TrEMBL record:
Superkingdom, taxonomy of origin: Bacteria
Ranges in a coiled coil: none
Family in the record: In the N-terminal section; belongs to the enoyl-CoA hydratase/isomerase family. Belongs to the enoyl-CoA hydratase/isomerase family.
Domain 3-hydroxyacyl-CoA dehydrogenase NAD binding span(s) in chain numbering: 286-461
UniProt cross-references to Gene3D superfamilies, sorted A to Z: 1.10.1040.50, 2-enoyl-CoA Hydratase, Chain A, domain 1 (3.90.226.10), NAD(P)-binding Rossmann-like Domain (3.40.50.720)
Record protein name field: 3-hydroxyacyl-CoA dehydrogenase
Chief location bin: other
UniProtKB keywords: Fatty acid metabolism, Isomerase, Lipid degradation, Lipid metabolism, Lyase, Multifunctional enzyme, NAD, Oxidoreductase, Peroxisome
Domain 3-hydroxyacyl-CoA dehydrogenase C-terminal as annotated: residue spans: 466-550, 585-669
Catalytic activity: a (3S)-3-hydroxyacyl-CoA + NAD(+) = a 3-oxoacyl-CoA + NADH + H(+)
Length: 675
């Protein structure tokens, strides 16, 4: 019985690999041993290769060689899996001759999410067990699958009772020995990969189906090429092909970015002055004020996690509309098969609707999600102060207003915090937790934890206009607006941003959100492009036209009306029209964001540069393979960013004035990563 034991997740670092090699060799040499069971100590079998070792020189035997050695063992090796067998962990199991697992175990090859591929034989062995089609799903998709599903596809040989894995695995191994069963080496199988040779079109079809999801990423294509190679080449040649592809990926920028993001996500939970063991307040019932798009989405998060919600509106009609939207969302999910029909009712059953704000008296956490009007927010918080029970957390979902000013309306500012969800709130993973001047530590700990419980990535930020995300976005928006007055078309700005890897550019985004947010005919001054578009009822996708024209299927086409409006405004403002290269468009939209991020760090409004990156990846769709704006700036080199900011400053003024932090780091030859 060989027990893997290394850190919290049995990552297959150098010491563990050496240990396994020595133990397998000793077991082979010992005539008293007839079979080997490989099992994980602690919470799981193994989470795979030690990610911190990538990019460093290898010490001792590498994982691919170790796995070939295990496969070549002269005695049967049985993997006994509980918890997770991921990446190199599953590849280890695939090198064993047999696999047993408890039903709750999860197996998968998530390497693609780190910008690499299963480079220890995974792309060659998995297709030989489950066939190329399923291998594509598992390897390019990267999501783990349950042991039962894995058993159904032949990846697991036998399921063991939940609490009897050890005994079951030993009995299994004894049976293999007693029956004289052969050592099943996956490398020798070729029945399942025949499909890949007979129907090579399946790879092209898979590429097409997944083009949208994999846009811009290098690893998915390399994974597909390796699975194709598995079907085409003898095993050892396939392994060599996989090795070469792995080396290219692991030494590239995308993988460095994606590995950085893996650790950055885990860092967000660490708050220097709020230790991990800070006791959180119990949250048994949540109140949500406002049943609009945000309030409804926010409520769904808690209902999904089984936490009862009381939702309040001022008018019956608005409340009914909000409830109907929530129900429709659930029903649509059920129609797609992603939710059991009975769960629709269970979730709706956890929701209490009311027109009486007093009904929130029993809630442990109350989240205000009304529109962005400081007067109304202040009124609500002073009311909450009188009615909420002692110890209740009072949160605002504001996306830019001053949390301290809101907290000042209560006699309990320590209980007040910002919880800024991103739209659609039931889908987007980001939660900006906004710490006020006087917010209590246990309130911060609770907001961070409840965020994780409802499946969000919580990032702690400080009070400033727009917090981290929207504050940086405003920089991009300003430059995008300036660029179109200078003569760059909105379509070119959008194209450059899209090609960079963001899901959409600023003008597509404005059209989607609606151009009339905060605009009204009465107060309109007919000054900006937006004013004039709105005046012509071009208010975005919802009115069939905004910057773009939209057809019935909401497909966008560039509009000459918009181009004329832009030319009019430019003339009125005396802006000189000129051309700009794609590179200039990119720099002028994104470098000021990086600069603003540096100011945010200087002011202590974010704990670390990687928190800013996590905000941008999860709140705005910044391409994960570029690691977030701050990581991206590091890959360009801060001296270069500084030089360009100074050049634009000379031309366009102090909107581009470099922050002191950026200047200092650039001069010292450092990056944000060194902070
Ligand atoms: C691979 O296998 C390639 C093979 C080819 C080679 C040729 N390495 O996530 P948690 C740390 S690539 C190093 O909080 P959970 C993690 O940072 C790998 N460290 O736990 C954290 O450290 P902290 C493919 C790792 O229970 C601590 O362990 N595998 C690794 O919420 C606890 O982690 C994957 O991509 C690692 N592989 O979730 C799986 N994994 O305490 C990556 C974790 O200092 N891992 N750490 O912050 C996971 O997805 C999750 O950790 C989990 C457990 C689902 C296994």
């Amino acid at each position: 019985m060989l027990t893997l034991q290394s850190g919290p997740v049995n990552a297959l670092g150098s010491a563990l690999r050496q240990g396994i090699l020595a133990a397998v060799e000793a077991a082979e040499a010992d005539p008293a041993i007839t079979a080997i069971v490989l099992i994980g100590g602690g919470r799981m079998f193994s989470a795979g290769a030690d990610i911190t070792e990538f990019g460093k020189p290898q010490t001792g035997i590498g994982l691919p060689d170790l796995l070939n050695r295990i496969e070549a063992a002269s005695k049967p090796v049985v993997a006994a899996i509980h918890g997770n067998a991921l990446g190199g962990g599953l590849e280890t199991a695939l090198a064993c001759h047999y696999r047993v697992a408890v039903p709750s175990a999860k197996v998968g090859l998530p390497e693609v999410k780190l910008g690499i591929l299963p480079g220890a034989g995974g792309t060659q062995r998995l297709p030989r067990v489950v066939g190329p089609r399923k291998a594509l799903e598992v390897i390019v998709g990267g999501s783990p699958i349950g042991a039962k599903a894995a058993a159904a596809m032949g990846l697991i040989d036998e399921l063991a009772p939940e609490d009897g894995l050890r005994a079951h695995a030993v009995a299994f191994a004894e049976r293999v020995v007693a029956e004289g069963r052969p050592l099943l080496k996956i490398r020798d199988r070729d029945d399942k990969i025949a499909e890949g040779r007979e129907n090579p079109g399946l790879f092209a079809a898979f590429r097409d189906e997944n083009a949208r999801k994999t846009r811009g990423f290098e690893a998915p294509e390399a994974c597909i090429a390796c699975i194709e190679a598995a079907c085409r080449l003898p095993f050892d040649e396939g392994l060599a092909f996989e090795r070469a592809e792995f080396q290219t990926l692991v030494s590239g920028t995308q993988s460095a970015a994606q590995r950085y993001v893996f650790f950055a996500e885990r860092q967000t939970a660490k708050i220097p002055d709020v230790p991990d063991d800070t006791p959180a307040r119990p949250i048994a019932r949540v109140g949500v004020i406002g049943a609009g798009t945000m309030g409804g989405g926010i409520s769904m998060n808690f209902l999904n996690a089984g936490i009862p919600v009381t939702i309040v509106e001022t008018k019956r009609e608005a409340l009914d509309r909000g409830l109907k939207t929530i129900r429709t969302n659930y029903e649509n999910t059920a129609k797609k098969g992603r939710l059991k029909p009975e769960d629709v009712e269970t979730r709706m059953g956890l929701l209490t609707d009311t027109l009486e704000i007093e009904a929130l008296a029993e809630c442990d956490l109350i989240i205000e999600a009304v529109f962005e009007d400081m007067g109304i927010k202040k009124e609500i918080f002073s009311k909450l102060d009188t009615l909420a029970k002692p110890g209740a957390i009072l949160a605002s979902n504001t996306s830019y207003l001053d949390i301290d000013a809101i907290a000042a309306m209560t006699s309990r500012p320590a209980d007040v915090i910002g919880m800024h969800f991103f739209s659609p709130a039931n889908v987007m993973r980001l939660l900006e937790v906004v710490r006020g001047e006087r917010t209590a530590k246990d309130v911060i700990a609770t907001a961070m934890q409840i965020g994780r419980k409802i499946g969000k990535i919580s990032v702690l930020v400080g009070v400033c206009h727009g917090f981290v995300g929207n504050r940086m976005l405003a920089q991009r928006q300003r430059e995008a607006n300036r660029l179109i007055l200078e003569g760059v078309t909105p379509w070119d700005v959008d194209r450059v941003i899209y090609e960079f890897g963001l899901p959409m550019g600023p003008f597509t985004m404005s059209d989607l959100a609606g151009l009339d947010i905060g605009w009204s005919r009465e107060t309109n001054r007919s000054e900006s492009v937006r004013d004039l578009l709105c005046e012509q009822d071009r208010r975005g996708q919802k009115t069939g036209a905004g910057f773009y024209d939209y057809d019935a299927k909401r497909k966008a086409t560039p509009s000459t009306v918009t181009e004329e409006i832009i030319a009019t405004v430019a003339e009125r403002q005396g802006v000189t029209r000129r051309d700009a290269t794609d590179q200039e468009i990119l720099e002028r939209c994104l470098y000021p964001m990086v600069n603003e991020g540096a100011k945010i760090l200087e002011e202590g409004k974010a704990i670390r540069a990687s928190d800013i990156d996590i905000v941008w990846i999860n709140g705005y769709g910044w391409p994960v393979y570029r690691g977030g704006p701050m990581f991206w700036a590091d890959t360009i080199g801060l001296p270069k960013v500084l030089e360009r900011l100074r050049a634009y400053q000379a031309e366009y003024g102090d909107d581009f004035a470099p922050s002191a932090l950026l200047e200092r780091l650039a001069v010292e030859g450092k990056g944000f990563k060194d902070l």
